[in-house]
Amino acid sequence: MQNKFIKIYHDIADKIQEGTFSPQSKLPSEHDLMEKYNTSRETIRKALNMLAQNGFIQKVQGKGSIVLDARKFDFPISGLVSFKELAKKIGSNNKTYVKKLDLIKPDSYIQEQLKVKEDAKVWEVHRVREIDGENVILDKDFFSKVYIDHLTAEICANSIYEYIESDLNMTISFAKKEITVVEPTEEDRELLDLEGFSNIVVVKNYVYFDDASLFQYTESRHRPDKFRFVDFARRTHG
């Protein structure tokens, strides 16, 4: 037999997905939910916590439970997909804003991530991704100039991967990824629409060509309500 808070969770989650509770609206108060479901405050709080953990609501101090957009865009963990390719797939209104494009001397951290020396030259590219009118991704890319000699703001606003593969005729092969959940930085809050959000999802990518040359290190910083990170796994036997 299901616990009562799980039944309440499913009922409210279904209403959010059906549009009965629209994105950015407030759920009824805990007191009103207690009356509606004829249950205790503890049971309602368990259901609300479960809704928050699964991305249906954001509990905001002083405002109550804010309904999030239940439409999440699948972001493949194991694949290598550019934002332009992802945007075509999800069919949403999107824009890319190039906030920074500099040729830098890498600090010790970037030297370590890209496996380059202190006197190397590295492209630093910061791009904000807007989806449906909201800034939800901050991409901070670092490319070794040994492999990518030339970059422009126009290339960065369109697709760097498209430029590498179509214009430079180089084959992007594989990546190592790390996914963490962290508190937003001041820069995150300045560039992304994060009101009411206390965490962001950071995907670090180490990207290689087909000859196993490491050419890119990326920190892709995502607002958590818009993306569902997915993968397909197969168990091997023998």
From TrEMBL:
PROSITE patterns assigned: HTH_GNTR (PS50949)
UniProt organism field: Alteribacter keqinensis
Domain HTH gntR-type: 2-70
NCBIfam families xref list: trehalos_R_Bsub (TIGR02404)
GO biological process, any: negative regulation of DNA-templated transcription
Keywords: DNA-binding, Repressor, Transcription, Transcription regulation
Taxon lineage: Bacteria, Bacillati, Bacillota, Bacilli, Bacillales
Gene name of this polypeptide: treR
GO molecular function: DNA binding; DNA-binding transcription factor activity
Protein's UniProt name: Trehalose operon repressor
SMART domains tied to this protein: HTH_GNTR, UTRA
